[in-house]
C-alpha cells in the first residue's frame, strides 16, 4: 500500500474557537438573559472566556476524561461550556433539565459527573437530590437572581472563578479520539442510555451540518437555537455556526411563543431550529398577533414528525421555508434532511409540500439500509416498510458502559434506529413509526404517525397522539388522544375526515379529549405516559 502524504491534523474542537476568533472576531453571540435584558459579546471575547474556563476547570481539579455536567438553558455560558470543557480534555455532559429526580440521579451517577454547572433558576430542580449525588465534588453556579442563595454543598460562582482566571491557556485536547461530550437519550423506552461523542465524530458532524445539503449555515446567518442545548447538542448548530462565524442568538429561558416571535423579528433571525411543538405554538401566536418573520430562510424542525399541514401553513401564510430534518442523539444528531432537489422543481406547491413533509435524504456522511424482522435487506421502493439501520462518521458505535449490545447493534456493524420507514428509489425516507408505536391490527400495520398527521391537519385539532391498545379480537387497535383547538371535534366528523385518506380499519376505536398531550423532556409527545394512563384506566 502507498500511504497518502497529507498532514495528520487532529479533528479537535479548539480549531473552531481559534478559527472564529481570527476570522470573525467582531461577530457576536447574543443571549436573552433570565431578566429579559440582552447580553451580547464578540467571538474574540468568547475565545478569551473559553480559555479562562480551561484554567477554571484545571483549578477545580478536573482531569482529562472527567465528566463535567451542565444544567442550564441556552445561553452564552452554556456555549462556553460546550467548548471550554472538551478543549480542557474533559467531557461536557448536558443534563436534561426536564427529567424526573429519579432519572437525573440515575444519569449523574451513571456518568459519574465530577462537577456540575448549574443555572440559578434551575437550582430548585437539583437541590432536593444533591445529598444523593456522591460523585459530584463541586457545583458551579451562574445567573443567580439578586440575593439568591443555594442549599447545594461545595459551591463556587462561575463569574468569580472566571474573574480570577488567566486567559492564557494551552488546550488539552490533542487527540481526536478523546471523548468530548456525553448526552443521554430521552428514554421513552426504559432508562436513558449514554452516547459518548469524540472530538473527531463531533468535528465531522459539524462539517456535515455545514454542508449546503444539510443546514449549511454561513457567516451571514443569524441562528436561533430554540432546541435546548441538552437535546442532542442543540443539533450541532452551535458548533457549526461558531466555525463559520454566524451570529448566534440564544433564547435563555424565554421559550414561549410570544417572546420567540419577538426575538425572531427583532434579531432578523435567518435559521431557527426547534421541535414541532414549538413551531406549532409559534404559528398560532403569529396568527393572533402578526410579527415580521420574513427574515427566516430555514425554519429547521426535527425531533418528531412535522405535520405536513403546518409546513404548508408556514409557507402559505408567512412565506417561510420549513426544513424538515431527522436525527437521533445517537447520530450527533443529523441523519437526513428534506430539502427539495432538482427533480422536485417542476412539482406544484402541493407536490413540494408532500416532499418537505418526508424526513428526506441521508446527508453525505450517513449510510442507511432498511431490513425486515429477520434482518433481510428490503427494497427502496417508497412502499416497503422496514427498520432503519445506519452507520457513518458520527453514528454511535456503543452506548456508554453497555457492552455486547446485540439489541441495538448488528453483527455487521450497523446501528438499529428503532424507526420504521420507507425509502423511495431516490433515497427519500419517510418515517412511518417507531417499532414500539406501530399498531398491529388483525395482522395489518397501522401507522400511528400517519393518523396523527392527518388528525392534526383538521382545523379543530391542536395536538393528536395515537397509541395501540390491546384488543381481544384484533390484537391491537388504535386509540386517538386529542387536544382540541375549539369545538367541532366530534368522532363522526373526524372519522369522515380520516376516511378521505385511510381504509376503514385504520379508524381509531375512540377519541379521547385531554387538555394537553403529555410531553417528554425534549418536547415530544410521551406515548409511554399515555399507554400507562390507558393501562391504569385513566383515559
Ligand atoms: P432523540 O434522540 O431524542 O432526538 O430521538 C430520536 C428519535 O426521534 C428518532 O429515532 C425518531 O423516532 C424521532 N425523530 C427525530 N426526528 C424526527 C422527524 N423529523 N420525524 C419523525 N420522527 C423523528
* Basic shape: globular
Q: From the alpha carbons, calculate the radius of gyration and give it in angstroms.
A: 23 Å
Query: How many distinct helices?
Result: 15
Strand content: 15-25%
Q: How far is the N terminus from the C terminus?
A: 66 Å
Show unreliable segments. none
User: What hetero molecules are bound to the protein chains?
Assistant: adenosine monophosphate
Mean pLDDT: 94
**Strand sequence of the main sheet, in spatial order?**
2-1-11-10-12-13-14-15-16
Sheet with the most strands?
A: 9 strands, mixed
Kindly summarize this structure in a few lines:
The protein has about 550 residues and is an alpha/beta fold.
Amino acid at each position: 500500500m502507498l500511504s497518502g502524504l497529507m498532514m495528520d491534523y487532529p479533528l479537535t474542537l479548539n480549531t473552531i474557537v481559534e478559527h472564529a476568533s481570527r476570522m470573525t472576531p467582531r461577530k457576536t453571540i447574543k443571549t436573552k438573559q433570565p431578566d429579559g435584558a440582552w447580553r451580547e459579546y464578540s467571538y474574540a471575547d468568547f475565545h478569551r472566556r473559553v480559555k479562562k474556563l480551561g484554567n477554571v476547570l484545571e483549578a477545580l481539579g478536573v482531569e482529562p476524561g472527567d465528566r463535567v455536567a451542565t444544567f442550564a438553558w441556552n445561553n452564552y455560558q452554556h456555549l462556553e461550556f460546550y467548548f471550554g470543557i472538551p478543549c480542557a480534555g474533559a467531557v461536557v455532559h448536558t443534563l436534561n433539565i426536564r427529567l424526573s429526580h429519579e432519572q437525573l440521579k440515575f444519569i449523574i451517577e451513571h456518568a459519574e459527573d465530577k462537577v456540575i454547572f448549574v443555572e440559578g433558576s434551575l437550582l430548585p430542580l437539583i437541590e432536593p437530590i444533591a445529598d444523593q449525588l456522591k460523585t459530584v465534588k463541586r457545583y458551579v453556579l451562574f445567573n443567580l437572581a439578586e440575593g439568591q442563595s443555594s442549599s447545594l454543598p461545595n459551591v463556587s460562582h462561575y463569574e468569580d472563578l472566571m474573574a480570577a482566571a488567566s486567559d492564557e491557556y494551552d488546550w488539552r485536547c490533542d487527540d481526536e479520539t478523546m471523548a468530548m461530550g456525553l448526552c443521554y437519550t430521552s428514554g421513552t423506552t426504559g432508562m436513558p442510555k449514554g452516547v459518548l461523542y469524540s472530538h473527531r465524530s463531533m468535528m465531522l458532524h459539524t462539517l456535515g451540518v455545514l454542508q449546503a445539503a444539510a443546514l449549511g449555515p454561513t457567516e451571514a446567518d443569524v441562528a436561533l437555537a430554540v432546541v435546548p442545548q441538552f437535546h442532542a447538542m442543540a443539533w450541532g448548530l452551535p458548533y457549526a455556526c461558531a466555525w463559520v462565524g454566524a451570529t448566534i442568538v440564544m433564547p435563555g429561558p424565554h421559550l414561549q411563543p410570544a417572546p420567540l416571535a419577538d426575538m425572531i423579528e427583532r434579531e432578523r433571525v435567518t435559521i431557527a431550529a426547534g421541535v414541532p411543538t414549538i413551531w406549532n405554538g409559534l404559528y398560532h401566536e403569529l396568527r393572533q398577533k402578526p410579527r415580521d418573520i420574513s427574515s427566516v430562510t430555514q425554519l429547521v424542525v426535527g425531533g418528531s414528525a412535522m405535520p405536513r399541514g403546518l409546513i404548508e401553513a408556514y409557507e402559505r401564510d408567512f412565506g417561510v421555508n420549513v426544513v424538515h430534518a431527522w436525527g437521533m442523539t445517537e447520530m450527533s444528531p443529523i441523519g437526513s434532511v428534506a430539502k427539495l432537489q432538482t427533480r422536485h422543481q417542476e412539482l406544484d406547491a402541493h407536490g413540494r409540500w408532500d416532499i418537505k413533509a418526508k424526513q428526506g435524504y441521508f446527508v453525505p456522511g450517513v449510510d442507511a439500509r432498511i431490513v425486515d424482522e429477520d434482518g433481510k435487506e428490503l427494497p427502496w421502493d417508497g412502499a416497503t416498510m422496514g427498520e432503519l439501520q445506519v452507520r457513518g462518521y458520527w453514528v454511535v458505535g456503543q452506548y456508554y458502559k453497555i457492552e455486547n449490545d446485540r439489541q441495538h447493534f448488528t453483527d455487521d456493524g450497523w446501528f438499529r434506529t428503532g424507526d420504521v420507514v420507507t425509502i423511495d428509489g431516490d433515497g427519500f425516507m419517510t418515517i412511518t413509526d417507531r417499532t414500539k408505536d406501530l399498531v398491529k391490527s388483525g395482522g395489518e400495520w397501522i401507522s400511528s404517525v400517519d393518523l396523527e398527521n392527518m388528525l392534526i391537519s383538521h382545523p379543530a385539532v391542536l395536538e393528536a397522539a395515537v397509541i395501540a391498545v390491546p384488543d381481544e379480537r384484533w390484537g391491537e387497535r388504535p386509540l386517538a388522544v386529542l387536544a382540541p383547538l375549539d369545538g367541532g371535534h366530534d368522532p363522526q366528523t373526524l372519522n369522515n375526515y380520516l376516511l378521505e385518506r385511510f381504509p376503514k380499519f385504520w379508524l381509531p376505536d375512540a377519541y379521547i379529549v385531554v387538555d394537553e398531550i403529555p410531553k417528554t423532556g425534549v418536547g415530544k409527545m410521551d406515548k409511554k405516559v399515555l399507554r400507562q394512563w390507558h393501562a391504569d384506566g385513566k383515559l
